[in-house]
């Protein structure tokens, strides 16, 4: 079949041609938008799941819903080595610029931008040389004494309150979307929770929609004990068989191509229902199949190419970031388990080491986003099928 007509799109954060199996999340967010629009209190939203389940795609789709509802929106990706101030400034600047044409007072917008600039400039240390100081590119004077105490928790509460005030005056809301939320520095996580708590108590029309790895709830809880009640958590998992079939068949039918039943069974077994893998296998099978309908034989012929691409782009690129000690740790994990969490004590026993001696490798792998600790004393891979990849790949 013609590769040019291939509808499948494996890529980081790239929206698939059919966003199947996510109606629950889309409906839940629609309710949040409607409730906030009517002045009802609502919790911010947290999406969690392994890599490859489509969290970033879903985050972008939720943002599109907010835009369609005439909200101001901004998005950022958290990084462990970067303060929240700089990317959040850009996100809120974008959100308020979306609302500005509908606001009755340009001076009021400038007033908020002055507060935002004050918040942003605190990213510069007091001893930073003038030539090295970062400026947010906001063309209004900063407002001294507003969101510039230097305490990120105090400043963030004040900033969010000011932004919510702008949204109230327009008669809408603001949504800040944060990807890889677990990578925020601990002090910023604490500040974000405090700001969301303050907004929830006042019913202000500003919400945060975060996405991160499965241990994100534990990260938030460790920061503020009330975070368990502060956010609404949605676990994003692999697709069931029916939804996985739709993700494959609906885009194909739009190109007048069909799959036979055995092909769909084979594809589900190989992909495990993980959205990224579905797209990767779908793309390879399309390119290899000579005609419609696509058969199980076509899937078996195309399988090695899809697996080779995943080995390089999805698994290998992550494995290459690990040191020899970290690779040894992961390979031992792979021998003990794949999807399920593995006790760290068992890893130490298998390596003939004391658990404390392995802590540096474990902590480094967690920081690199290759493993996570959902429960004390256990670790698991953040990437589905990673254990299988390691078992099949020579050291």
From TrEMBL:
Q: Please, which domain of life does this record's source organism belong to?
A: Bacteria
The protein's UniProt keywords, in alphabetical order, are: Heme, Iron, Metal-binding
Any one GO MF term held by the record is: electron transfer activity
> Which portions of the sequence form the region Disordered?
1-20
Every Cytochrome c domain range: 168-334
Q: What is this protein called?
A: Cytochrome c domain-containing protein
């Amino acid at each position: 079949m013609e590769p040019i007509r291939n509808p499948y799109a494996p890529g980081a954060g790239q929206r698939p041609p059919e966003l199947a199996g996510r109606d629950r999340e889309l409906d839940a967010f629609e309710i949040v938008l409607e409730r906030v629009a009517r002045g009802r209190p609502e919790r911010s939203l947290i999406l969690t799941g392994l890599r490859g389940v489509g969290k970033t795609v879903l985050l972008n789709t939720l943002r599109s819903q907010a835009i369609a509802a005439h909200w101001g929106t901004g998005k950022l990706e958290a990084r462990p080595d970067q303060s929240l101030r700089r990317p959040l400034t850009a996100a809120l600047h974008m959100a308020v610029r979306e609302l500005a044409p509908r606001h009755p007072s340009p001076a009021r917008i400038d007033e908020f931008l002055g507060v935002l600039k004050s918040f942003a400039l605190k990213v510069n240390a007091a001893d930073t040389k003038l030539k090295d100081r970062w400026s947010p590119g906001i063309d209004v004077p900063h407002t001294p004494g507003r969101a510039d105490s230097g305490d990120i928790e105090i400043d963030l509460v004040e900033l969010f309150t000011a932004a919510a005030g702008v949204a109230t005056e327009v008669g809408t809301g603001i949504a800040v979307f944060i990807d890889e939320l677990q990578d925020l520095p601990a002090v910023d996580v604490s500040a974000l929770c405090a700001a969301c708590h303050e907004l929830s108590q006042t019913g202000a029309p500003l919400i945060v929609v975060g996405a991160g790895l499965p241990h994100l709830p534990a990260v938030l809880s460790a920061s503020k004990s009330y975070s368990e009640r502060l956010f609404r958590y949605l676990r994003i998992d692999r697709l069931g068989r029916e939804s996985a079939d739709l993700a494959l068949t609906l885009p194909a039918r739009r190109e007048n191509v069909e799959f036979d039943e055995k092909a769909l069974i084979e594809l589900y077994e190989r992909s495990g229902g993980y959205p990224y893998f579905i797209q990767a296998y779908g793309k390879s099978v399309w390119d290899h199949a000579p005609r419609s309908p696509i058969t199980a034989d076509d899937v078996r012929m195309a399988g090695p190419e899809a697996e080779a691409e995943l080995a390089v782009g999805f698994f290998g690129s992550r494995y290459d970031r690990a040191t020899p000690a970290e690779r040894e740790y992961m390979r031992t994990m792979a021998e003990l388990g794949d999807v399920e969490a593995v006790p760290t004590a068992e890893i130490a026993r298998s390596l003939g080491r004391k658990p404390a001696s392995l802590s540096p490798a474990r902590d480094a792998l967690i920081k690199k986003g290759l493993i996570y600790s959902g429960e004390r004393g256990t670790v698991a891979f953040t990437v589905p099928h990673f254990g299988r990849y390691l078992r099949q790949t020579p050291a």
